[in-house]
Design a protein that fits this description.
It is a single chain. By secondary structure, the chain is an alpha/beta fold. Helices cover 25% and strands 16% of the residues. It has one domain (21-353). The chain has ten helices and 13 strands. It has an eight-stranded mixed sheet, with helices on both faces. Helix 3 packs across helix 4 (132-144). InterPro entries: AB_hydrolase_fold. This is Poly (3-hydroxybutyrate) depolymerase.
Length: 355
C-alpha cells in the first residue's frame, strides 16, 4: 500500500448495518457534524451536536472583509460563535434555503432524508465560546428543513461551559471554558447521545475487550495538505465485531479545536512542540464512547485534524473546517459539500468500515 505506515495499519472493513450510522461532535466537530450530516444524510440515522452552529453560518455576510477568506473567518467568529446581539446570530431560515439550494445542485444529499432522523442538540448555559443562541439556531435550522420535532432532544438547561461532559472526577469543573474542553458533570454525554439516536442500549461495558486501532489516514485525503488532517486516525472495534459474532453500526466522533491527538499550540506561526499539552488522546479514550460501544456492537471512528499556521492555510487550533480554510477557491468555498476534502475523507473512512 502506497500510504502504509510502519506505525499504523490500514483501516479494515466489517459487517456493518448500512443506513444506521450516526455522527457527533463538539465545537468545530459539531459544526462539521452538521455539514457531514447534510452532505451524506442518506447514510445516517441521527446526530449529536454539542455547541455547534447551523450549516454554512460563517458565510452569512460575505462582504465583511475585502478578502473572501477573511470575511468567512470573521463571520465564523462574529456570527457563528459569539454574536454581539441576537440580530447578528445565524439566520436559520436563510441557511435552510442555502441547504435546499445545495441539495438541488447535488452538492449535498436531498434534505428530505432528514425528516425522521434523531437529533441530540446541546448548549451549556455557561458556554462563552459558542453562545447558546447560536446553538438554538441549529435547532431552528433543522426544523425549517422538516425534521420531526419529536425526534429532537434539545438541552439548554445545564450550567456547562464549552465542553463535552463526562463523569470523570479528574476532568475540569462543569462550567469551565478551557482546554481540553472535557468537563465533569456527573454523566457521560456520549452515552446520552447514542441512547437518543439508537433507543434502548445495553449498559456500558466495565472493561474494553475490543481493539483501539490506529490507522493511516493519508490514503483518505490523498496527502492533500489543504486538508489539515493528521497522518493517523483511530477507531474502536468492539470484541464481538472483531470476532465476527455481531453485525455493527458505526458512530463517527469528531473532536473539537485543540483536541486532536497531536494538537500543538502555535506561537507566532511556529509550533511550540516543547510545550505540547499532554491531553491529545483524551477525546478518544476518556469521553465514554468506547465503553458503551463495546456492549452494543458499535464501531466508533475518530478522524483526526491538526493545526497549521502560515501560508494560505490558517488553522492553528486544529479545528475542523466550517468556514472554508480548506477550499482551493476561497471566493466559492466547497467546505460543506460532498466535494470538500475533509468530508470526502470522513465519508471514505465510513465506507471502508462498511457503513
Amino acid at each position: 500500500m502506497g500510504y502504509q505506515s510502519q506505525m499504523a495499519e490500514r483501516l479494515s472493513g466489517y459487517d456493518v448495518r448500512r443506513g444506521e450510522s450516526s455522527i457527533s461532535g463538539l465545537s468545530s466537530g459539531a459544526f462539521m457534524t452538521v455539514q457531514m450530516h447534510l452532505a451524506h444524510s442518506s447514510k445516517f440515522k441521527g446526530v449529536g451536536i454539542i455547541a455547534g452552529g447551523p450549516f454554512r453560518c460563517a458565510e452569512s455576510f460575505r462582504g465583511a472583509a475585502p478578502v473572501a477568506a477573511d470575511a468567512f473567518e470573521l463571520g465564523a467568529l462574529a456570527i457563528g460563535m459569539t454574536p454581539l446581539i441576537p440580530q447578528m446570530a445565524p439566520d436559520a431560515g436563510d441557511l435552510a434555503a442555502l441547504a435546499r439550494d445545495a441539495a438541488g445542485t447535488g452538492l449535498i444529499d436531498p434534505v428530505g432524508n432528514l425528516a425522521d432522523h434523531r437529533l441530540y442538540i446541546f448548549t451549556g448555559r455557561s458556554d462563552c465560546v459558542v453562545y447558546p443562541d447560536v446553538v438554538n439556531r441549529t435547532r431552528e435550522f433543522y426544523l425549517y428543513l422538516g425534521v420531526n420535532p419529536d425526534n429532537v432532544l434539545y438541552n439548554d438547561v445545564v450550567n456547562a461551559g464549552h465542553s463535552i461532559i463526562t463523569d470523570n472526577l479528574e476532568d475540569a469543573p462543569l462550567a469551565e471554558n478551557r482546554p481540553p474542553y472535557i468537563n465533569n458533570g456527573n454523566f457521560m454525554q456520549s452515552h446520552a447521545i447514542l441512547r437518543h439516536i439508537y433507543g434502548v442500549l445495553n449498559e456500558p461495558a466495565e472493561h474494553l475487550m475490543g481493539r483501539l486501532v490506529r490507522f493511516d489516514q493519508r490514503e483518505f485525503f490523498d496527502d492533500n495538505k489543504r486538508s489539515s488532517m493528521s497522518d493517523f486516525g483511530y477507531a474502536y472495534i468492539p470484541s464481538a465485531v472483531l470476532d465476527g459474532r455481531a453485525q455493527a453500526r458505526v458512530h463517527v466522533a469528531l473532536h473539537g479545536c485543540k483536541q486532536g491527538y497531536n494538537y500543538v499550540n502555535y506561537v507566532r506561526g511556529l509550533p511550540d512542540t516543547a510545550n505540547q499539552p499532554p491531553y491529545g488522546n483524551r477525546y478518544i479514550t476518556t469521553t465514554g464512547y468506547n465503553h458503551i460501544a463495546e456492549s452494543n456492537d458499535i464501531i466508533v471512528l475518530y478522524p483526526q485534524v491538526e493545526g497549521s499556521d502560515g501560508g494560505d492555510l490558517q488553522n492553528p487550533d486544529g479545528c475542523w473546517d466550517w468556514w472554508g480554510y480548506s477550499s482551493p477557491t476561497p471566493r466559492n468555498p466547497d467546505y460543506y459539500s460532498k466535494n470538500a476534502v475533509q468530508i470526502k475523507a470522513i465519508n471514505a473512512m465510513l465506507e471502508r468500515l462498511g457503513g
